[in-house]
Amino acid sequence: MAIKRTTEYLDDLANQVEQQLLTRAKLAPHMAKQIAVEVTDHMAHHWGGLNLYFGKGLLRRLSHRDQSIYDSFTGSNFDELVRKTGLTERQIYRIVEQGRKFERTRRQVDMFAAAEETAPHTSRK
């Protein structure tokens, strides 16, 4: 079951890369396919054996506009931001919440990485 799922994920990755190369980079189909397969093979080799989790990409989804709104937020200026941006108060609130989530994630310490760095390294003889 796991091997089949892994193969499906790799096939899907190749298809997604190929579609992006076709639509965004406007590459010829044969070139897009070749690059997509090479990228997928590289990622399988590079990350092979790891148990990966892909988040929803909150950090990457914060647009320039949203980041600007979040940076301008003082804690009590919802009305000002509504007037300035033309967005609704609900939209501003949602943008501020996304910004806060991003900041929390960015500042949060990875306890497991810290434990691995400080763990004593022993070798077997």
UniProtKB/TrEMBL annotation:
Domain Mor transcription activator: 5-111
Alphabetized SUPFAM superfamilies for the sequence: Homeodomain-like
InterPro entries in alphabetical order: c-mor_Regulatory_Protein (IPR052411), Homeodomain-like_sf (IPR009057), Mor_transcription_activator (IPR014875)
Pfam families (alphabetical): Mor
PANTHER family the record matches: MU-LIKE PROPHAGE FLUMU PROTEIN C (PTHR37812)
Name of the molecule in the record: Mor transcription activator family protein
